[in-house]
Amino acid sequence: MLQKSSNSRIGKVWLAPVFVGFWLASLVHAAFTTTVPVSERLAGDVAVSNFPVALALEEFRLLLTEPQVLFLGPERIGLRVAFQAYDHRPAQGVAISETGQAMLSGRVAYDAGAGEVLLHDPRLEQLNFDRDNAVTRQFTDLLRAAWSDRVSNPMRSTLPPHPYLQPFKANITDILYDGSHISLVLAY
């Protein structure tokens, strides 16, 4: 017949806090993080989900299409778009339409609480109309003024509703960029 020694009770008292400590540690470390790479091309494909974009600016409207993401360097990401600037007021006999390309850039980040992509230090890098005339010069002046007046630092955008993002959209905690690719940081 086995007898319990007094040491077994001491052992149980000592093991209980150790077991609880390991159990709590396993809960804390049950979450893990991983990264998902996003190439320049894939970033452009994802951006397409938010386009076309129509903006109303004072006398005219702007339609943005054909987004292309560009990795510009170690910190900045660019977004080139085709655009149509038009002023259509039939009652006044006005029907003007001009096309061109624009590119904005910034430093990408992520606001996990709001679920928004941030573009810090946004810049309007290029604004080129296909034709040079009095109307396009007027549109250029109006667009640059609207950029200065309306663009916040940082610019904010919701994540696009792209199928690539849907499986882990709720788990994105950060977006990193190293000059050659974007990494989505996920926590599970």
Descriptive tags:
single chain, 188 residues, alpha+beta, Bactericidal permeability-increasing protein, domain 1, three-stranded antiparallel beta sheet, 3 helices, 9 strands, elongated, DUF1439 domain-containing protein
**Strand content range:** 35-45%
Count of individual beta strands: 9
CATH homology-level superfamily: Uncharacterised protein PF07273 family, DUF1439
The SSE order reads HEHEEEEEHEEE
Number of helices: 3
Which CATH architecture is right?
Super Roll
Write down the Rg. Answer: 27 Å
Molecular shape? elongated
Organism: Seongchinamella unica
Protein name: DUF1439 domain-containing protein
Provide an overview of this structure.
The chain is an alpha+beta fold and 188 residues long. The chain has one domain (33-187): Bactericidal permeability-increasing protein, domain 1 (Super Roll). The chain is built from three helices and nine strands, in the order αβαβββββαβββ. A hairpin with a 2-residue loop joins strand 2 (53-57) and strand 3. It starts with 5 loop residues before the first helix and ends with a strand. This is DUF1439 domain-containing protein.
Short synopsis of the structure:
This protein has 188 residues and is α+β, with helices and mostly antiparallel strands. It has three helices and nine strands.
Fold topology:
Layout lengths: L5 H23 L4 E6 L1 H8 L5 E5 L2 E12 L5 E13 L4 E18 L4 E14 L4 H17 L4 E4 L13 E6 L4 E6 L1
Antiparallel strand pairs: 1-9, 2-3, 3-4, 4-5, 5-6, 6-7, 8-9
